[in-house]
Design a protein that fits this description.
With 139 residues, the chain is of the alpha/beta class. 25% of the residues lie in helices and 27% in strands. A hairpin with a 2-residue loop joins strand 4 (58-65) and strand 5.
């Protein structure tokens, strides 16, 4: 099967990734599994706040504890993300954190891809698979 991050992230990058996944799955007649791009940054053994730079003083972020979602993916001003991180000092922070002025923990995306292969993430119809665009939901 193919595991693909469906966003949030770069508009063009996410669309390209989904198009490639659909093409491979269709050509090879294999399954596609969709995952949050942020969830690929999690540590499977510790609560993790996962972050991508959304530009313009904002970040995409979500929080995971293994397969459990502690905070749904969202886009928020960097100040709000830093506040959330400050309220959860015992959690790891992974991802693109330079815009927040903090360091990221080490993480392994390859291990997390394998976690995405489960029935909850299975795409039943690849032609209806669409990206997640959180910028449209900005507060």
């Amino acid at each position: 099967g193919v595991v693909v991050g469906i966003g949030p992230g770069s508009y063009t990058g996410v669309r390209i990734a989904i198009t490639i996944a659909k093409t491979i799955a269709y050509a090879l007649k294999i399954k596609v599994y969709k995952v949050s791009s942020l969830s690929l940054l999690r540590n499977p053994n510790k609560p993790t706040i996962c972050v991508f730079n959304a530009r313009s003083g904002r970040s995409y972020f979500g929080c995971y504890d293994g397969d459990k979602v502690l905070h749904e993916d969202e886009v928020a001003p960097n100040e709000e993300v830093l506040k959330y991180i400050g309220e959860h000092k015992d959690y790891l922070v992974n991802g693109d954190t330079n815009n927040l002025g903090i360091e990221s923990s080490d993480f392994d995306i390859i291990d997390n891809l394998a976690l995405g292969i489960n029935e909850n993430n299975l795409v039943n119809n690849i032609f209806t698979l669409d990206p997640i665009y959180l910028k449209d939901l900005m507060k």
